[in-house]
Amino acid sequence: MVTADTPVAAPTDEHEAPRGRARKTGPPRVSKTPWEMLLERREITDLDELLAERLEVLKARRTRA
Asked: What is the pTM of this model?
């Protein structure tokens, strides 16, 4: 049972995080935009084709409504 008087262990190493999780060291992560992540998976020509298909679907939906 944990009470207010229960001792809490202090980290033994300056790189040790609370609850036993090690802190990540190394270069900071570079955040990528959604567009950059998409370009990693697909080519521009594929994206152009997909855009054209989706625009056709939207135009067809608009003319039916």
From this structure: 0.47
CA 27 from centroid of its chain's CA atoms: 18
pLDDT tens digit string along 17-54? 556 666 778 888 889 999 999 999 999 999 999 999 99
As a whole number of angstroms, the distance between CA 47 and CA 55 comes to 12
Q: Given the structure tokens 């054209």, which residue do they identify?
A: 52
Distance CA(20)–CA(15), nearest Å, equals: 11
Separation of alpha carbons 46 and 39, rounded Å:
10
Residues present in the chain in total: 65
